[in-house]
Every structure is written in structure tokens, then in C-alpha cells.
Hints:
The protein has 215 residues and is an alpha/beta fold. It has helices at residues 9-26, 36-46, 51-54, 61-70, 80-85, 88-93, 105-114, 118-127, 141-152, 174-182, 198-211, and strands at residues 55-57, 74-77, 98-99, 133-137, 163-166, 188-191.
Amino acid sequence: MGEIEFVKPMDIERRSFAIITQLLEEQGRETEGVNAPVLKRVIHTTADFDYAENLVFSPGAVETGLAALREGCDIVTDTQMARAGINKAALQRLGGSVHCFMSDPDVAELARERGVTRAAVCMEKAAALQRPCIYAIGNAPTALLRLREMLDAGELDSCPPVLIIGVPVGFVNVVESKELILETRVPHIVARGRKGGSNVAAAICNALLYQLGRP
């Protein structure tokens, strides 16, 4: 067992990111640029360097997300866990809010009546906000599938997603739903394959927010 090194609490994150940067450089990965802070924070959250391969950024996705956040856009998540993990103080400072409709009684009732998932209905409720939103999906592939259906049907033309963060985790329709988002022209950050999760969705949102400064 190696010797335990004492690190001051305020230095732990800084040291962690320095280690991540070093290991990425040893792999020949890009550690600068606008996408790098997102990748590093996802790795910091998961301790999983597979994301250096799996995390896909559409051209200008991060820049688009940053611009929208500066203008006070909202974030929609598919889980309360992701909502809890997003730095709401940083978002509110920019004029935005976080929405998660999964616990809303009307969402549960409508999902039962139609025989669909609550996550799919949540995407419809989010679209009804008619305001610029980043959609951060970390759990439910059906949320991504419904977003793709609405995009194809032109139902989001009046207020399209600013950015889709597609990182659901699991085995059923997870890979397929992500590939459908990768096909779109909507700016997106997608974790290809089965990996992801609510913590990853929150980490990506926070990585964007922290590029604009912490409160």
C-alpha cells in the first residue's frame, strides 16, 4: 500500500485535474481548447478515461452552449439526480433555471394514459416552455428518441434545442438513441456506446457553466 499524501481540501480538485491532464497528454490527447474542460470534468466525475474516445462533440457544440448560457438559457434534465448535480447558483447568476418534470403528477398521468415513458412526456412538456433550453439527458434513451421524433416532425421548429447532451446509460435502446442524435444538425455532446449517467450529464453542464465563471 502506497504512502498517503496529505492534500489540502482546496487543492484536491486542482491536483486531480492536473493528473487527468498529464494522463491525457501521455495518451496523445488534446488537453487545450474549448472541448477539453468538458472531457476533463467528465473524467474527473467518473475516473473513466474511455470518455476520451467515447465523448463526441458536434462542431461548435460547446461554443453554442456557452453562448446560450451567457444569454440566460434554461437546462432541462431527465432525472432529479442530474438536476441536483447541476450548479444552480452558477446557472442562476447567468439568468437560467434547471427543469426536471419527472415527478410532476400530470406527466405521470399522461404517460400512463398513452403507454409511454415519463421521460418522453417530459420532453414534450419542456418543448412547451417555448424558451431556449439545453437538454441534458443522462438516464432515459426514450427522452432522446422523443426529441428525435419531435425534431423530425418539425414540432420543435419554433424553439429548437440549443444543445442536446445525450449521455444515457444502460442496455436497451441506449446506443441506438444516441446514434439518432448524432445524425441531427442540432448541436450535441454525446457519449457514444452504453456508458453515461445522470452524473455525467450534470458534469457536462457544470463544465460549461464553470467556463463562464463560478459564483
